[in-house]
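Appendix C reproduces, verbatim, an entry submitted by the partner laboratory led by Prof. M.T., so that reviewers can inspect both the input and the predicted structure.
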Amino acid sequence: MSAIPQHLKRVSVLGAGESGISAALLLAAEGCKVTVHDTAPAQRLAERALKLSAAGIVLQAEEVALQVPDATEFAVLSPGIEPGTPLVAAFQSAAVPLVGELELAFTRCKCPVVAVTGTNGKTTTTQLIEAMFNGANVPTQACGNIGPAFSAKVGQSEELSLMTVEVSSFQLETISSFHPRVAIWLNFAPDHLDRYPSMSEYYAAKLRIFERQLHDDWAVVNARDELPKLNARTLRFNAQAPGADFSLVNGMICFLGEPVLRMADTQLYGLHNAENLMAALATGFAWGLDWSAMRPALCAYRALPHRCEVVGTSFGVEYVNDSKATNLDAVEKALASETRKVVLIAGGKDKGFEFDSLTELVAQRCRSTVLIGEMAGRISENWSGALPCQRAGSLGEAVALARAAAQPGDVVLFSPGTSSFDMFQNYADRGNQFRALVKQLSP
C-alpha cells in the first residue's frame, strides 16, 4: 500500500459500507472531490447514495463501479473489500495508489492510539478500555471495527487523550504508518479461512499491529500465544495458568501476585472475560492509571447483546444467545464457561475450517446438538460419533428440536461457531431472531 500524498484533489473510495462512507465524508470535508465505488446493486445502495450526494459525493454502483474516474490521485480501500476483487484490480490496472481506511484515519489523528486486535473479545475489551479511561477522567472514544469507523471519529482526536481503536486483520492488511502507543493482542484462533489461504497468512496480518511500535511503546499480549520478539515493552496475561504478569487466582485478577480486581465484583463471567479485563487493566497500567481509578467502570460494565446473553427460561431450561460466536474459539470459551449440561445449536456459513477440534469438549459438555446452515452436514460428520446430532432447516426448527432435547436444569446454548451470511443479514440479525423465538416459548 502507498503512503498518502498531501493536498489530494480527486479521490476514489472502494466500498460503500460504514468505513467507506466515513472515509468519503472525511475526505469531502477536506475539500477533495470524492467518488465511492461499490459493485452491489444500485437499488440496495440507494439510501447510501442519497447520504453521500448531500455531501457532494458521487456513488458508482454495479458495473459502473469498475470505471476509474479520470485524474484519480488516490483510492481508499474499505476493509470489507478483498484485495483480489475485480474492483480493486481495476484501480491497480490504472496504477492508482491504494491505502486502507484505518491508515487514512491514522494520518489525521491528533492523539495517541490504543489498538485492540484478536480473534475473539475485541469489542468487549475495546468497550472496557473506553469505559475505564473515561471513568478515570482520561477522555477517549472507541471506534474502528467496533463501529463507528475510525474515520468518522478522528475529527474529535484533538480533544481526546487517546483514541481506542478496535482493529481487524482485514484493516491491518493495508497499513503502512499505523503506530499504536499500546497494542493489544487478545488471542489467536482459526478464523476467516474463506479470505486467507492459510492460518499463517491470517496470523501475519494480525501481527502487523506491532509493526511500527518502538521501545517506549507497550504491547499487551496473551501469554499462551507464541509471538516473535517485539520492540515494545510487554505485559502478558493468562487466566488459565500462573506465570504471566496478570493471572487469575481464586477468582481474583492479580498483577505480579498483587490482588487487583475480584471477578465477582464485575458483571462478567468466564475465563475469556477475565482475560478481557486483564487486557484492559494492563492498558491502564501502561498509561499510568491507578488500580483504584480503573475499578469502578470495569465493575459497572455490562456485556453487549449476543455474547453469552441469557434471553429466557422455559420449563427450567435457560436459553443463551451467543450469536457473536463466529469461530471455534468462541464456542470453546462459551462451552468451557458452562457447568450445566448443554444442548448446543451450532452451524452457519462455510468459512473453510472443520469443527473436529471441538469434538471432545462437545462430547463432555453437551447432551445433544442441533445443527443449521451450510456447515450442518460437515459438523455432523465430525460430531455424530460422539453424541446425538440433529439437523434443522431453519432457526425456528432448531429451537424446537433443542427444547425437546433439553431437560430441566440444562442450558440451550446458541453458539454457531461460524458466520451468519448463509441464512441471516449478520450475527445481530441471527441473535435477534433467536431471542424472538425464545420469547415465544412458554415461561
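The chain has a mean pLDDT of 94. Additional entries are available on request from the coordinating office.
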